[in-house]
């Protein structure tokens, strides 16, 4: 196996194009659905809530990208231009992606920019927008009983994006402060490819080990790239089948109890 400790497969994923494609699939899934349909993977939310959230995030990220902010923003206010009726949300979501595309085109993705994660460049926000949109597209499809498939290369890139940025996410994922250990390691590996990540828990924090390829691990989670992505985001349960679990099960329980994003 190889270690995917940088953005997986440079050139394998066009993040800008993928945001548009995932948004189109999301809008198509919900277009004729009842906006009041519950979304089990987002407890307490309806489809209308889900779409409103996804479009709002896209518009907010677009504002950040246009401004090329160099420090944490002090306000999250943005003109959402929400339609009066939820029946208009699918088209509004597509318009949100169009606004994002305009922001992508307005500058170089390699420009330095503040970001809450590991990559302090504009491209961070494009990649983050992609997986925010993709995961909520899956939520919508699951809620409607539709096939919630994820392309392999997208899934590999999404697993990498999640694991690399999770150590920086304590503000909205407070449980991560508990992900500490005396040099304990968890390996996440794809059974449908050679991609793997070794996460090391240290007394002062945790993160992907860039030199972890082939190293022994205290616990291992193996699954398809798509299943690993949905597992990490809490859309699948590791005990539900489809995963190969080995090693320290208490360590795995500790990880999944504290890594909710």
Q: Short description, anyone?
A:
By secondary structure, the chain is α/β, with parallel strands linked by helices. Helices cover 41% and strands 11% of the residues.
Describe how the helices and strands are arranged.
Layout: E1 2-3, H1 15-30, H2 47-67, H3 89-105, H4 122-143, H5 152-165, E2 184-190, E3 195-202, E4 205-208, E5 219-223, H6 225-232, E6 244-247, H7 249-258
Parallel strand pairs: 1-3, 2-5
Antiparallel strand pairs: 2-3, 3-4, 5-6
Gyration radius over CA: 18 Å
Task: Note the gap between the termini.
Answer: 27 Å
Q: Which percent bin holds the helix content?
A: 40-55%
Largest sheet: 6 strands, mixed
Strand content: 5-15%
CATH class division of the largest domain:
Mainly Alpha
CATH architecture of the largest domain: Up-down Bundle
What is the tally of helical segments? Answer: 7
- Mean pLDDT across every amino acid position: 94
User: Might you state the CATH topology name of the largest domain?
Assistant: Four Helix Bundle (Hemerythrin (Met), subunit A)
Oligomer: single chain
Number of domains: 2
User: Tally of extended strands?
Assistant: 6
Report on the structure:
With 261 residues, this protein is α/β, with parallel strands linked by helices. The protein folds into two domains: 10-148, Up-down Bundle (Four Helix Bundle (Hemerythrin (Met), subunit A)), CATH 1.20.120; 156-258, 2-Layer Sandwich (Nonspecific Lipid-transfer Protein, Chain A). It has helices at residues 15-30, 47-67, 89-105, 122-143, 152-165, 225-232, 249-258; strands at residues 2-3, 184-190, 195-202, 205-208, 219-223, 244-247. Strands 1, 2, 3, 4, 5 and 6 form a six-stranded mixed sheet that branches. The protein starts with a strand and ends with a helix. Mean pLDDT is 94; it is low at 1-10.
């Amino acid at each position: 196996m190889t270690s995917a400790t940088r953005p997986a497969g440079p050139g394998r994923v066009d993040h800008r194009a993928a945001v548009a494609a995932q948004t189109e699939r999301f809008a198509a899934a919900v277009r004729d659905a009842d906006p009041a349909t519950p979304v089990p993977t987002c407890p307490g939310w309806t489809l209308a809530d889900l779409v409103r959230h996804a479009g709002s995030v896209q518009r907010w990220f677009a504002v950040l990208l246009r401004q090329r902010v160099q420090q944490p923003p002090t306000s999250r206010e943005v003109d959402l231009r929400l339609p009066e009726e939820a029946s208009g949300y699918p088209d509004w979501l597509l318009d949100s992606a169009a606004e994002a595309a305009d922001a992508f085109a307005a500058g170089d993705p390699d420009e330095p920019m503040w970001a809450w994660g590991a990559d302090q460049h504009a491209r961070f926000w494009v990649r983050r927008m992609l997986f925010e949109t993709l995961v909520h597209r899956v939520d919508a499809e699951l809620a409607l009983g539709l096939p919630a498939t994820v392309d392999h290369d997208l899934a590999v890139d999404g697993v990498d994006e999640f694991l690399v940025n999770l150590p920086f996410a304590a503000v909205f994922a407070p449980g991560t402060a508990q992900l500490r250990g005396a040099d304990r390691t968890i390996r996440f590996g794809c059974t449908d490819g050679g991609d793997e990540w070794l996460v090391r828990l240290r007394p002062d924090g945790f993160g992907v080990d860039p030199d972890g390829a082939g190293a022994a691990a205290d616990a291992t989670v193996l699954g398809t790239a798509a299943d690993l992505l949905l597992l990490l985001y809490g859309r699948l349960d590791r005990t539900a089948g489809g995963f190969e679990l080995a090693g320290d099960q208490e360590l795995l329980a500790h990880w999944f109890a504290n890594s909710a994003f």
